[in-house]
Amino acid sequence: MPYRKSNIWTKLDWWTVAVYLILIFAGWFSIYAASYDFDKISIFDVSGRAGMQMIWIGTSLILGLLLLQIDSSWYEFFSYWIYILVILALIATIFLAPDIKGSRSWLVIGPVRLQPAEFAKFATALAIARFMGAYKYELRFDRKFFLLVAIILLPLLLIIMQKETGSALVFLAFFIVLYREGMSGKLLFSAFCAILFFIIGIKYGEETWGLTPKGEFAVLVLIIIFANLWMYGYRKKGRRFIRTMNFCSAGLGLTALVTLYFVPFNLCIAAYGILAFMAVYMLFIAIRYWAWHYILPVIFIIFSVVYLMSADYVFYDIMKPYQQMRIKVSLGMIEDPKDVGYNVNQSKIAIGSGGLYGKGFMHGTQTKLKFVPEQDTDFIFCTVGEEEGFVGATAVMLLFLFLLVRLIIMAERQHSAFCRIYGYGVASVIFFHLAINVGMVTGISPVIGIPLPFFSYGGSSLWSFTILLFIFLRLDASRNDSMY
Question: What is the radius of gyration, based on Cα positions, of the chain?
Fold first, then answer.
């Protein structure tokens, strides 16, 4: 079929390529500083981390050039096959990979180690884009929607089976893509509530207010508030419901005062009673007026309560002790600067010691004395903070911000749904990695062990992000190609 082909080199988004090059070479210098050994002073010494990263950078640049030479239509045509091959690799990894630091996620092929979980990101992005781009698919809660969710969750579950929880959580970033393509904001809001309820329930679960567990009661109050806000958008019947619930909430507040000063009482019982009344009332409205959208707040209440009741079981009986400790340290429930919290504590010391302008390249004391474990991989950002200071760390964040904004602009200018959806997939994965990695280095989020894109040491990580980005660059460069 004849197409009007544009010159790829004139249509390539060179701003994105420039940021990519700056990031990978800035990462290379940071890896050299973080892994510096006094016996190996050359940055090109391949027996050291920096030398090996130089090889990964070289092969990544070659890989990027090759990806730009492939016809853009091939990516859409072979997207399902790529996804299937990666899924088979993930399954093989579970059984064939050796145990390395408690996980089975690396396939060893001679002198090379590859992590299929990294390549599953671009494969899943392609599969989602192909599925949603076909026949102008619209997001609705039907069989196709659950099939789409299965495409996302299948690699996630396989990676969890490899005991790589951090890498698995990255796939939740694809739900941002679904939101952009029309998924109801209520589902995204429910996911936010799940995280908020879990944090509050665990953090204050062991504290009491008289006979009332603080964590459980706080979550129940939030469920009541959010359900009220949900109902507020349902016009007259919803606002009539709000007035009714205001009386109930006032009664709950009065009960709280009574139980605080006069009669010991578990306020959670009253909160459960209010939620039961809310659910029954909304169910009554749904049946009487055939207004089935009132069922959604009922489902929200039921699932929130069940989720709250199961949070303790998941945290204490399913999560491993080291995962529990990481979460407790992150939430400030315990102080453990010498064990589980050691990495984060030393990382914050390194970043703080950098001050405004940093100690200078190769002059970071925390870096040189190896106080921070995994400093050239998961904790590479603290090297930037110590040696380049607040100014350098801000510059790196601004580069990533520019890249994300550029990716969104590129995604929005695509003429096909496949290219637009894939572009948002690229932006979502990079954003998730950036937010979580910087968050765990600065102590904001739990340590889950995911690399900083283009910065952290590792061939699989750099290759996967290069493939992810350069496929989109190729798709964008041919966006104006059309049939005569």
Answer: 26
Tell me the two tokens of residue 298.
């009922």
Residues facing residue 209 across a β-bridge: 212
pTM confidence score: 0.82
Tokens at residue 477, please? 């460069």
For 194-205, give the DSSP string.
Answer: HHHHHHHHHHTT
Q: Which tokens go with 105?
A: 């996620």
Domain ranges in the chain are: 8-183+328-477, 188-319
Helix H or strand E encompassing 391 = helix 380-412
Whole-angstrom Cα distance, residue 61 to residue 21? 9
DSSP string, 185-230: HHHHHHHHHHHHHHHHHHHTTT-EETTEEHHHHHHHHHHHHHHHHH
Return phi, psi of residue 31, to 5°. -65, -40
Q: How many CB atoms lie within 10 A of CB 17?
A: 15
Instruction: Name the percent of the chain in helix, strand, coil, to the closest 5.
Output: 70, 5, 25
Q: How far apart are CA 46 and CA 52, in angstroms?
A: 5
CA 180, CA 105: separation in Å to the nearest integer?
Answer: 31
**Cα–Cα distance for residue pair 453/430, rounded to 1 Å:** 7
The dihedral formed by the CA atoms of 115, 84, 12 and 136, expressed in degrees to the nearest 10 = -140
Token pair recorded at residue 121: 């990101």
For CA atoms 83, 414, 167, 178, the dihedral sign is: negative
Amino acid (one-letter) located at 351: I
CA 267, distance to chain mean position in Å, is 36
Distance (Å, whole) CA 225 – CA 233:
13
Q: What does the alpha-carbon distance between residue 399 and residue 393 come to, in Å, rounded to a whole number?
A: 10
pLDDT in tens, 26-85: 999 988 888 776 666 677 777 788 888 999 999 999 999 999 999 888 999 999 999 999
If you write DSSP's letter for every residue of 413-433 in order, what string do you get?
T-SSHHHHHHHHHHHHHHHHH
DSSP, collapsed to helix, strand or coil, labels residue 100 as: strand
What span, in angstroms and rounded, lies between the C-alpha atoms of 451 and 117?
A: 12
Of 225, 218, 306, 217, nearest to 267 (Cα)? 217
- Per-residue pLDDT of 343-396, as tens digits, reads 777 888 888 888 888 888 877 777 766 677 777 788 888 888 888 889 999 999
Give the integer Cα–Cα distance in Å for 34 and 37.
9
Q: List b or e across 324-353, with b for residues whose CB sees 16 or more CB atoms inside 10 angstroms.
A: bbbbbbbeebeeeeeebbebbbbbbbbbeb
d(C-alpha 207, C-alpha 203), whole Å: 9
